[in-house]
Amino acid sequence: MNQNFTKDTILKLLSGMSSEKEIRKYLDRFSSDDFRFAVIKVGGAVIENDLENLISSLVFLNEVGLRPIIVHGGGPKLSRALEEKKIQFSFKDGQRITSKEVLDEAIDVFKAENQKITSALIEKNVSAVSLIDDIFKCIIQDEELGFVGSIIETNSNKIRDIISNGGVPVIAPMGYTDKKQIVNINGDKATQALAKEISPDKVIFLSEIGGILDGSDNLISTINIKDDYERLMSEGWLHSGMKLKLKEIKLLLDHLPSNSSVSITKPLYLNRELFTDAGFGTLVKAGHHIDKLKELDNVNKDHITSILESAFKGKLDKNYFINQDKEYYVSGCSRALIAISHYQKIAYMDKFAVKADARGEGLGNAIWNRMTADHKKVFWRSRPNNSINFFYKNVCDGFQKTNEWNIFWIGINNLDELTECIRMASNQPETIAYEK
Ligand code: ARG
């Protein structure tokens, strides 16, 4: 594709949302593999109520050369069609019991829903390819459910072929058995199977709500399964539907490479979620393992030096490790680090480093939360022009500006203590020499 055209398209559509550099970073990441960019699950309600935004977001992806694998639902529509025709139906463990009559109706409804997406895309020059019962080979495991398939094989070769020819596969939640019987599949199960088979960088759920909401109905921006899952599942305010979703996502992440992630968003915000660090929706990651180190050997020292030097693009002072009384929080992926030294009984956050390629993953938050779980009183400083100040202003209890530094703190309420800390912070020597 013509590079300038691509670049213009991106800038036009995303301008005002974030910097070109940030957008480029994601574009490069998502373009690195032809097939493994994303599986996008489109909820049934989205096709009914938000088709226009869905199509324009997908057209945009197509214009920048990204080919997602689309799988859709259609449950609400099917329920309505069945009610209209007075066909009885019920559910068992979230799966629709599918009699012959229900199946016939399901085939009609899913074909029609699939066609709505496919033809709207084709009209906008996206080579969408409709796949109704071609992808999932199934068996009927539970006779009680009727014509409901359990997936035993996902035909990824077909998907690959379509994508290598510049097409976008649009997959209905149906499968086939070796007796050539078409069967109904739960849309989320189909998404799971695709994700396991393809190992995509992203799995995206497009819904009307566009994320997981907290107790005050605000979007939860990032969820880290390792740290947040148990707590969220026990929260009274988390709706049962959301709990189910989160449980499913956890299972999904268990089968994906550790740098893969799941996003829930609305069609309108899809590109913002994908191409900015802050995103717009709920990002769920498996979570970050964070080690706490106190006594350092030479290997640790080299390791820490390399994280700091690459995050800050400078040289670390050779006397940096002389003070023995420090603590280091290091992420398992070696892309984030916090260094703490102590002043009286108060923690001074001497370094907070997140490598550029790890921003937007919730890693910074994860390491911050780990550190503040140990330290209730912390103070730190940063340059007034540092973009991380936005984050600091959010998390701190207070801050003071001097010409050279912004000084922040949490948990320090005593005025004398605070004055001392501020003085201490301003007088710290610099330990990174920046390249000119
Ligand atoms: N653009 C990145 C991604 O898609 C980060 C998204 C962050 N989103 C969020 N809701 N916090 O992986």
The main β sheet shows up as: 8 strands, mixed
Helix content class: 40-55%
Q: What's the architecture of the largest domain in CATH terms?
A: 3-Layer(aba) Sandwich
Ends apart, CA distance between termini: 37 Å
Associated small molecules: arginine
* Principal-axis shape: elongated
Task: From the 3D structure, determine the CATH topology of the largest domain.
Answer: Carbamate kinase
* CATH class categorisation of the largest domain: Alpha Beta
In short:
The protein has 436 residues and is α/β, with parallel strands linked by helices. It has helices at residues 3-14, 20-31, 44-49, 51-63, 75-84, 100-123, 156-164, 187-198, 225-234, 240-254, 270-275, 298-312, 363-374, 389-395, 415-427, and strands at 38-42, 69-72, 91-92, 95-96, 128-131, 136-139, 150-154, 168-171, 174-176, 182-184, 202-206, 222-224, 261-265, 282-285, 290-293, 314-316, 327-331, 336-343, 346-354, 378-382, 398-401, 406-410, 432-434. It has two domains: 3-285, Carbamate kinase, CATH 3.40.1160.10; 290-434, Aminopeptidase (3-Layer(aba) Sandwich).
